[in-house]
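One thing: could you explain this record?
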Amino acid sequence: MNPALTLATARRILTQLRHDPRTVAMLILVPSLLMVLLRFVLNSPRLFNATAPALLGVFPFLAMFLVTSITTLRERTSATLERLMTLPIARLDLLFGYALAFGAIAVVQVAVATGVSLAWLDLDIRGSLWLLLLIAVLDALLGMALGLFVSAFARTEFQAIQFMPVFVLPQILLCGLFVARGSMGWLLNWLSNVMPLSYAVEALGEVTSSSTVDVTLIRDLLVVAGCTLLALVLGAATLRRRTP
């Protein structure tokens, strides 16, 4: 890997996003607006505090998956990636450049959503705010990495969106957001245990309910970070010199 090439790729993506204000607005504002909507739908501080921490990870995860998969697919189908692959640049340089660019957006996205939840929606956090931000950013990066990976298997933007029910919705349903994972049947519990979003939601629940950093929390962080890195590596493996 060449750090200079990785940074150059990140700058190119950020420059493109700067000229697409609607996409930037969606990435940064939509999770915050959804948190506001959730607060008024529940109309109860107690219910909001029980539900909101998990959604601070789920909303950015979903938004980053959609935008990243579609943006990367456009570059594949427009032959931009194909032209870049003719240059002396490694696949990991390209993928980690994407990760840096979308990661920077994810930091802003999560910071805004968390700030709105704390300042205006009375979200109660007993643990470290910085740890909460770290976990939420890891969730957004996980969505970004999966979006980069699945873009290799789509030929149109419609197909890219169709991957959401396969890679995203099962994780949301089985992560413990609606039903406690321990009360699920053995098959659903097993599926939940192999899905990274389950560990992200568990970590967010722990950091908002307790200030203790225990082994479980560290394990959850390592699982989410490891799955993000694995998805990026698999995404690099799908980059081809020619686009079919």
About this structure: The first helix runs from residue 3 to 18. The CA atoms of residues 21 and 66 lie 16 Å apart. The two ends are 26 Å apart (CA to CA).
